[in-house]
Amino acid sequence: MSEKLRLSKLMTIKGICSRREADFCIQNGWVIVDGSVVDTLGAKVQDNVIVELSLDGKAYIDQKISVILHKPIGYVSSQPEKDYSAASELLLPENRYSRFEDGKSLSRSDLSSLAPVGRLDIESKGLLILSQDGRLTKSIIGPASAVEKEYLVRVEGDITDEALDLLHKGLYLDGQPLKPVKIMEIEENLLKMVLIEGRKRQIRRMCELVKLQVTGLKRVRIGSLMLADLPEGQWRLISHDEKLKFLK
């Protein structure tokens, strides 16, 4: 016998949308379960049902905005801290990277509703995704996510084979083992590290455990999204095709 779940929860598990988006779609009669519309909030269904969105529901989810921001040092990725600004404050029409002319006009109110996907600490710079799309957020930072995050890490200290081996696999943080990290020294004192998790200040804390001090940290890739030549402090829209690569 399959388990009964709230329809909104099942929709998030299936990666259709976030819980809030699911409730909105249910209220509007845009959710179809095994061929029938379900428009009752809190409705429970078997976990093996087929859940689909109507054309209106798909249009609502697909119009959700997601952007890449090149976050500078000195900005926090989420809630503002004393004397510091949130990275989202850089999402202004005048900071849009003009090289990407996608024809979609965005207002300040559109941009103010975007939330950071994951963290990038105040001392770090590079690629930060901000989004209205719960599906994208879950695919990148959800508990089952295996999306790679690539960093360039400048360090001081002796980069030994033992240190690289431990950074790759063998360290614990907060009493829990870390997932394996791809790591290589690409030039003197510069490491490339590729993670599939994102614990708080993970790279800095890992390096401290092997007697290395991080002096510079830049995220250059999340999944198939590259920072590339996006200037510091500027942003661009994530295209529909780019988003689909995360949602497959």
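That was protein one. Protein two is written in the same sequence-then-structure order:
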Amino acid sequence: MDEITLEAAPVLGGANLEISGNRIVERDDLAIVSIATPLDGQDALAEALRNGWSLDVPDPTRSTLSGEVRAIRTSPDQMLLIFPHATPDAEATVQDRLAGTGYTTDQTDSWIVLEVAGPDTLSAMERVCPLDVPSFEIGGTGRTVMEHMGAMAIRTGDDSFLLLSASSSAVSFLHAVETSYRNVT
């Protein structure tokens, strides 16, 4: 019997679109790990984040960034850690650095991450996202619905965002974002 080797593939096939000077890129190089705070464990977790990644616990609707590692607050006692990671052991890597100060779950395969950037990004975002994205400071975040799909937006620059949505609706999500750009250019 022949041996079968499985190889991970990007959900959207490595989508990389250019629309009138704007970019939509599937970021399949990012790992996503959720971190929940144990009861009365806020201080220990905050110290572990500082020691492990030089990150502060983000305030609500904010993210913190150290190098390429970003922490995003998702609820009072939970955050997502997003960072480049090529192998399927992201959760174990995070847990090693946290040394038991937080509960972790690998979320990498649950989300699709699109990086959007360009001169028409704010206009495109306003068409598809009900949040007041122009008012986001860099590092600002928001959970919302985009074209009936749950999503999260993180402002990473003046004209750039990371957009997260469920991987199960990745094709529809990309279509909604792409259509919004095409409608404003």
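The longest strand covers residues 149-157. Keep this in mind for the problem set.
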